[in-house]
């Protein structure tokens, strides 16, 4: 199957909207905290005008809080910018370790809401395939979404990329080995058109539960 834009379908638009909404929500939170601290700064100013002695430590703490939130908002903007440019080149060589780290970053808010910790295990070597970065981000996010729902609160989701003779593979495993019991629901999260477009095969070990995405070395453009 050729890589046509409409292969993304509704799931791609939902993915894009969901991620953008999460990132902008976090930015809004950072701006709200900055705004609160600006209000506190104004209170300090009024106190100083009335002759209330203020220690330098108060301003130091306030300044540090504001700088932290500015850095947080700036990081979120960089992530959103990188995400939005993910469709600039439809097919290209992708470093799977970098892609997993990026999708993990995109999913931070969703993982926190579910009480799940996401860890990307590095194999210590570069793992590359030629594929669609956006579609692969979408598929991995769908699998992570499924896994986080299946795992429950307080568990760890581990992601790992490895090279194979035919291309590469991505493994998702849960600390409580819970994925196998729920694998029959995976199709509710992953659209068949997405899997077909990427020519990915999804396997699971029914005993220990990890999901394995087997990727070809190159997909047709």
Note the topology.
Blueprint: H1 9-49, H2 56-84, E1 92-95, H3 96-106, H4 108-114, E2 117-121, E3 128-131, H5 133-151, E4 156-164, E5 167-174, H6 179-182, H7 192-198, E6 201-204, E7 211-216
Parallel strand pairs: 2-4
Antiparallel strand pairs: 1-3, 4-5, 5-7, 6-7
Helix pairs in contact: 1-2, 1-5, 3-5, 5-7
Plain-language structure description:
With 221 residues, this protein is of the alpha+beta class. It folds into 2 domains: 5-86; 90-216, 2-Layer Sandwich (Heat Shock Protein 90), CATH 3.30.565.10. It has 7 helices and 7 strands; from the N terminus they run ααβααββαββααββ. The chain has helices at residues 9-49, 56-84, 96-106, 108-114, 133-151, 179-182, 192-198; strands at 92-95, 117-121, 128-131, 156-164, 167-174, 201-204, 211-216. Strands 2-4-5-7-6 form a 5-stranded mixed sheet. Strands 1-3 form a two-stranded antiparallel ribbon. A hairpin with a 6-residue loop joins strand 6 and strand 7 (211-216). Helix 1 (9-49) crosses helix 5 and helix 5 crosses helix 7 (192-198). The radius of gyration is 22 Å and the shape is elongated. The mean pLDDT is 84.
């Amino acid at each position: 199957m050729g890589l046509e834009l409409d292969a993304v379908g509704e799931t791609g638009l939902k993915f894009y909207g969901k991620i953008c909404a999460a990132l902008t929500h976090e930015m809004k939170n950072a701006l709200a905290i900055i705004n609160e601290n600006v209000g506190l700064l104004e209170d300090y100013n009024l106190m100083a005008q009335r002759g209330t002695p203020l220690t330098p430590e108060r301003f130091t703490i306030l300044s540090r809080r504001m700088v932290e939130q500015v850095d947080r908002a700036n990081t979120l903007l960089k992530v959103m910018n990188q995400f939005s440019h993910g469709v600039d080149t439809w097919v290209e060589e992708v470093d799977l370790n970098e892609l997993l780290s990026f999708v993990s970053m995109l999913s931070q808010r969703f993982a926190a809401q579910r009480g799940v910790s996401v860890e990307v295990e590095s194999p210590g070597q570069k793992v590359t395939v030629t594929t669609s970065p956006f579609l692969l981000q979408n598929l991995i996010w769908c699998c992570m979404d499924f896994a986080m729902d299946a795992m429950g609160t307080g568990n760890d989701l581990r992601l790992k990329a490895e090279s194979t003779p035919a291309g590469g593979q991505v493994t998702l495993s849960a600390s409580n080995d819970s994925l196998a019991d729920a694998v029959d629901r995976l199709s509710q999260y992953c659209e068949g058109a997405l899997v077909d477009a990427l020519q990915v095969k999804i396997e699971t070990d029914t005993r220990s539960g990890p999901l394995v995405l087997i990727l070809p070395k190159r997909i047709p453009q």
